[in-house]
Amino acid sequence: MSTAKKDYKRITVKSLVEMKANHEKISMLTAYDYTMAKIVDGAGIDVILVGDSASNVMAGHETTLPITLDQMIYHASSVIRAIDRALVVVDLPFGSYQSDPKEALRSAIRIMKESGAHSVKVEGGKEIKESIKRILNAGIPVMGHLGLTPQSIYKFGTYTVRAKEVEEAKKLKEDALMLQKTGCFAVILEKVPAKLAKEIAEALTIPVIGIGAGNGVDGQVLVTHDMLGMTHEFHPRFLRRYLDLYTEMTTAFQQYVTDVKAVDFPNENEQY
Ligand code: KIV
After folding, report:
1. If DSSP codes are grouped into helix, strand and coil, which group holds residue 75?
2. CA of 145 to the centre of ligand 1 (A)
3. Catalytic-role residue among 190, 202, 233, 248
4. What CA–CA distance (Å, rounded) separates 185 from 206?
5. CA of 148 to the centre of ligand 1 (A)
6. Is 190 a catalytic site residue?
7. Residue-wise pLDDT tens digits, 7-60
8. How far is CA 44 from the centre of its chain?
9. Which phi and psi (to 5°) does residue 102 adopt?
10. Interatomic CA distance for residues 110 and 112, integer angstroms
């Protein structure tokens, strides 16, 4: 069912830039563990993001702020062991790159060395330019992330659409151009108006990957647990649910309880 224009055996940062040039959209999903990453990679997803959304999805925190560098490395190394084809991008967690460029580089090196990941992602624009440069100078590919940046949630106060006002839209465009000029291989735009996202994608030669940013960008990313319908409390307009796993899993677990209580499981064929 693939509509890929070229059969990539292994996705690299260069493949993504080539896909954009060839007008082939880029598919990206999150994974935080071996089993999920194996399925996602086997399905032909181009990029796997070990997102700091693991803080919410895996650990149940309200925000992405509490997750640590060690925890991100644990998730990333589990994902890396599963991968044959996808490019793996790992979020640098909150507090591991904002204070100074040397610390940013140390954090990125730890992710690359200890997990075997292929690249890192950072949130923010010109405020973190020096950190990005430092990481890039060490030969580590960097993906940017603008618009709704969940690590700054307490500065913004809400998870609503970003850059609706002229000033914020102008800064967003400038930051996107700066990320490209500095050497980032791609940029994520989260929850920004579709028209603005399209304009930015058209202005950049590096891929712009959207989440809640319309279809005028070069690719799409979703949180896997959301698109599978496992996280049923979360209903943003941009989210398409491909399954209702919350209901399906609940039904399966309830059936298991019933079977155990009724001594229907295990049956004769399910024992030694
Ligand atoms: O952490 C994450 O999952 C992300 C995506 C929402 C883009 O940054």
Report:
1. helix
2. 9
3. 190
4. 6
5. 10
6. yes
7. 999 999 999 999 999 999 999 999 999 999 999 999 999 999 999 999 999 999
8. 16
9. -65, -40
10. 6
